[in-house]
Design goal:
Elements lengths: L3 H63 L2 H4 L5 E6 L6 E11 L22 H4 L9 E12 L8 E11 L1
Antiparallel strand pairs: 1-2, 2-3, 3-4
Organism: uncultured Sulfurovum sp
Keywords: Membrane, Transmembrane, Transmembrane helix
Protein name: Type II secretion system protein
Length: about 170
């Protein structure tokens, strides 16, 4: 016959064993949940930066098209802005470079001017009659920077988008 003291001791060992197993499962679930939250937050921030880069690139194209170069005698080359909260928002920096025929832009310095000594490219460059020679294009570099919520060192993450736009 089993002693009643042994029954109580066996029940105590079983209860401790069940508590240890439940604590292990709970800690594993908490760990997976924390990793999922970090991944979701990072994905959200990157998607937000991607959408902001697209929107600000379109805004830069709009500004460059309607920028009054005749009165300012210069071209729009840089746009800076901040989106959202001052501490956890997104910093925006846009650099615009012009490519094409320098004479079509009043006071702008283009990065590549076909009349400035580039030769043997093709007929549309050398005969100055049409094609790319009579166009202006923009290279728009959009940088979106933000603080990573889950980074213990509080570093910035920068998303870059480059766009070539023919005007």
């Amino acid at each position: 016959m089993i002693n009643s003291k042994h029954k109580k001791a066996f029940s105590m060992i079983t209860a401790i064993f069940v508590i240890v197993i439940m604590a292990s499962i709970t800690s594993m679930i908490m760990s997976v949940t924390a990793k999922t939250i970090k991944a979701t937050t990072a994905q959200y921030q990157k998607e937000q930066a991607t959408l902001l880069a697209r929107s600000y690139t379109e805004l830069a194209i709009f500004y460059a098209l309607y920028y009054d170069r005749n009165t300012t005698n210069s071209c729009l080359e840089k746009i800076t802005d901040h989106f959202g909260d001052t501490t956890a928002g997104y910093g925006v920096e846009i650099n615009i470079k012009y490519i094409g025929n320098n004479s079509l832009l009043n006071g702008c310095n283009t990065s590549i001017d076909p009349s400035g000594g580039i030769s043997n490219l093709n007929a549309t460059w050398s005969d100055n009659s049409g094609g790319f020679y009579n166009t202006i294009s923009l290279i728009i570099d959009t940088y979106i920077s933000y603080k990573d919520f889950d980074d213990p060192q509080n570093r910035n993450v920068t998303f870059h988008r480059r766009t070539l736009q023919k005007l």
